[in-house]
Structures are given as structure tokens and as C-alpha cells.
Amino acid sequence: MNTCLAPCPLVFDLDGTLLDSAPDIHATVNAVLRTQDVPPLSLDRVRSFVGGGVDILWRKIILATALPPEAQGDLVASFMARYHHATALTRLYPNVLESLGVLADRGHPLGICTNKPLGPARAVLEHFGLISLFGVVIGGDSLPQKKPDPAPLHASLAALGSDPAHPRGIYVGDSEFDAECAANAGLPFLIFSRGYRNTAISDLYHSAEFDNFAHLPGLVEQHAELARA
């Protein structure tokens, strides 16, 4: 067997990586803003706020709308009440399901490490019938730390069987938070270029970039040995 196909663990971000979920996040944000008589934000504006988790999302919305900072707790609660099952507008990126199937068939343990809260993360994976592919799902509220702290990524890899003292694997994501997390963890990072980043890929830590999930199994094969080093 080609050693490049050795089944190293693969951990994925969710929003902007496997899923184009910004339309549902956008609709949920504007539903909350309507309750405050605040004009809606554009999809592009909300998309640019995604990646750091719900608290950072609403911190940025408050700055963009001049809502009072002390209202953040209530706004987040109102958002979360609507967000747990916000899946109607979310879509898998093309070739995600096929690519995950190839990687699983090759024996790679698969996991999720996202700043999306665990409840909505699991709900959307279940909605698309993906939950059984992943041996672990770490959400933004699973640990005290969030990305770009490497702790959630290390926890994901440990749950997939990597040595907790020296966790190895490949991380796949789309954003500045993901790139910095992979760098902090000392792992190869494959960046999906059609996601939600606000920074040029050339300015971000990454091992390779791709714009089509059909290319991912080949990239994993190329980087698997580096991931095991």
C-alpha cells in the first residue's frame, strides 16, 4: 500500500469549509435585528463576520449597527433560540460528500473542529446525513478555548486516536481562525479557497489550497507523511 495513503486523522472546520451556511446565519441574524428595529445587514457583511464563534459574530454586529454592547447577552440568546435548527438555506459545497466518502474508505479517521456551537453543528451534520462519518465533533462551546487556540484541534485529534502528547494529523478549513489554529498546533493546513476568509491566502499559513473538494483526496495523499512527522 502506498505510504501516502496511511490513514492519518483528518479534522475539518464546518462553516465555510464543508458547508455554505452563511445564508442561514444571515437570515437568523436579521430575524434578531428585526426584533430590535434595526435595519438588516447584507449577506456579504454577515459572511465577513463568520468564523470566530457566536460571541465574536455578535460583537461585530453590535459594532456595525450601534446596538448597545450591554445587549450582547440577550442578542446572543435570541440568536441561539433560532439557530439550533437553521438549516433550510445551508448547502454542502460541491463534491464534499463524495470526497468524505473516499477519505473514509481509505481509512482516515474524520473529525470536526468548529467554532460553531456544538448543538447547531451536530444538527446540521445530521440534516445532511454526515454525522456518522465523524468520530468526533468539537464545537465552539465544547471546551473553554476556541480556535485559534490549538486546544480544540488537539482534542479532536486525540479523540481520533492521535497521541495526546504529540497529536498529529491534517486540518482542513477556510478562515483566518483555522489557519492560525493549524499554525499554533504545528499541523499541515489545507485551505478551501471558496470559504469565508477576509485575508489573501498568500498571507495565511497553509500547506496547500484547493477550490474543489474533488481535489482533496489527492492533497491528503501528498501531505499525509508530513502530517505524521
UniProtKB/TrEMBL annotation:
Residues at which Mg(2+) binds: D13, D15, D174
Molecular function (Gene Ontology), one example: phosphoglycolate phosphatase activity
Annotated catalytic residues: D13 (nucleophile)
Functional pathway: Organic acid metabolism; glycolate biosynthesis; glycolate from 2-phosphoglycolate: step 1/1
Keywords: Carbohydrate metabolism, Hydrolase, Magnesium, Metal-binding
Catalytic activity: 2-phosphoglycolate + H2O = glycolate + phosphate
SUPFAM superfamilies with a match to the protein in the record: HAD-like
Entry EC no(s): 3.1.3.18
InterPro entries: HAD-like_hydrolase_sf, HAD-like_sf, HAD-SF_hydro_IA, HAD_2, HAD_sf, PGP-like_dom2, PGPase_prok
Cofactors (names): Mg(2+)
UniProt xrefs under Pfam families: HAD_2
Family according to the record: Belongs to the HAD-like hydrolase superfamily. CbbY/CbbZ/Gph/YieH family.
Function: Specifically catalyzes the dephosphorylation of 2-phosphoglycolate. Is involved in the dissimilation of the intracellular 2-phosphoglycolate formed during the DNA repair of 3'-phosphoglycolate ends, a major class of DNA lesions induced by oxidative stress.
Protein name: Phosphoglycolate phosphatase
Organism annotation: Paracoccus aurantius
Lineage: Bacteria, Pseudomonadati, Pseudomonadota, Alphaproteobacteria, Rhodobacterales
